[in-house]
């Protein structure tokens, strides 16, 4: 029986276009000012810049070059932990000053609340940092969804296409694999989760439904039908 729902964000609870056309451009525009204003006073910023320098090979005292690397990584949608941490810090300012409002599909908003109220435990697993996850759900157009979540995982547990990451999540949750339903729009992530024995549902919100043996859902109401069957 499924007792835990573990959900991806981009393409699953929230639109790809919100992430790519709103969040990423916002980060690209505001990172330079944020880094220049905080790199001396905020150790967390300096620490992430050191990681950017290490991964990219750029001199860690060359702020212009580090900013250029970060903007290039945003362009390429690279899932580097240092970029994701810095994006979360910049988005925090945007959510706090009201420039950003998180997108959640109405069906996701509706069923997250219903599943919580039915006693399911809800967790997030996204490439966005845990801070960024709390922000998108805490400052959404639909209100504050953080009370419905029991916890958040980012790529500190490993990449989303690696089975070991799901194993790490299971170890942290202390539950049987078959009691967890993982939701994602990316099939390779579902493949990785299934290696551990987790159940999965593939969210295909737009375009043609793929011919596949796996469970596919257009939205969370179709996921709910699966939850009620198992
Ligand atoms: C937490 S909102 C920003 C999401 C993000 O930065 C990203 O790279 C999308 O990753 P996901 O694993 O949710 O597809
Ligand atoms: Mg996704």
Automatic annotation (TrEMBL):
Pfam families: Hydrolase
Record carries keyword Magnesium: yes
Entry keyword set: Amino-acid biosynthesis, Hydrolase, Magnesium, Metal-binding, Methionine biosynthesis
Domain of life: Bacteria
Needed co-factor(s): Mg(2+)
Alphabetized InterPro entries for the sequence: Enolase-ppase_E1, HAD-like_sf, HAD-SF_hydro_IA, HAD_sf
UniProt catalytic activity: 5-methylsulfanyl-2,3-dioxopentyl phosphate + H2O = 1,2-dihydroxy-5-(methylsulfanyl)pent-1-en-3-one + phosphate
Enzyme Commission identifier(s): 3.1.3.77
Pathway: Amino-acid biosynthesis; L-methionine biosynthesis via salvage pathway; L-methionine from S-methyl-5-thio-alpha-D-ribose 1-phosphate: step 4/6; Amino-acid biosynthesis; L-methionine biosynthesis via salvage pathway; L-methionine from S-methyl-5-thio-alpha-D-ribose 1-phosphate: step 3/6
Free-text comment on the cofactor: Binds 1 Mg(2+) ion per subunit.
Subunit: Monomer.
Homology family: Belongs to the HAD-like hydrolase superfamily. MasA/MtnC family.
Cited function: Bifunctional enzyme that catalyzes the enolization of 2,3-diketo-5-methylthiopentyl-1-phosphate (DK-MTP-1-P) into the intermediate 2-hydroxy-3-keto-5-methylthiopentenyl-1-phosphate (HK-MTPenyl-1-P), which is then dephosphorylated to form the acireductone 1,2-dihydroxy-3-keto-5-methylthiopentene (DHK-MTPene).
Protein name as annotated: Enolase-phosphatase E1
Lineage summary: Bacteria, Pseudomonadati, Pseudomonadota, Gammaproteobacteria, Pseudomonadales
Name of the coding gene: mtnC
């Amino acid at each position: 029986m499924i007792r835990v729902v573990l959900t991806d964000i981009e393409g699953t609870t929230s639109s790809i276009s919100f992430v790519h056309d709103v969040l990423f451009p916002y980060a690209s525009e505001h990172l330079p000012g944020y880094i220049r204003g905080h790199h001396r006073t905020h150790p967390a910023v300096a620490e992430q810049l050191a990681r950017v320098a290490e991964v990219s090979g750029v001199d860690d005292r060359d702020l212009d070059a580090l900013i250029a690397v970060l903007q290039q990584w945003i362009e390429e949608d690279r899932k580097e932990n240092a970029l994701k941490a810095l994006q979360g810090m910049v988005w925090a300012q945007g959510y706090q000053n009201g420039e950003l409002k998180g997108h959640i599909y109405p069906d996701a908003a509706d069923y997250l609340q219903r599943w919580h109220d039915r006693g399911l435990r809800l967790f997030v697993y996204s490439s966005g940092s845990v801070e960024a996850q709390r922000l998108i759900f805490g400052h959404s157009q639909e209100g504050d969804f953080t009370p419905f979540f029991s916890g958040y995982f980012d790529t500190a547990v490993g990449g989303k296409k690696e089975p070991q990451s799901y194993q790490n999540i299971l170890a942290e949750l202390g539950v049987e694999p078959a009691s967890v339903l993982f939701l994602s729009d990316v099939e390779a992530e579902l493949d990785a989760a299934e290696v551990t024995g987790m159940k999965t549902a593939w969210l295909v919100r737009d375009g043609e439904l793929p011919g596949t043996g796996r469970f596919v859902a257009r939205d969370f109401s179709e996921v709910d039908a699966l939850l009620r069957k198992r």
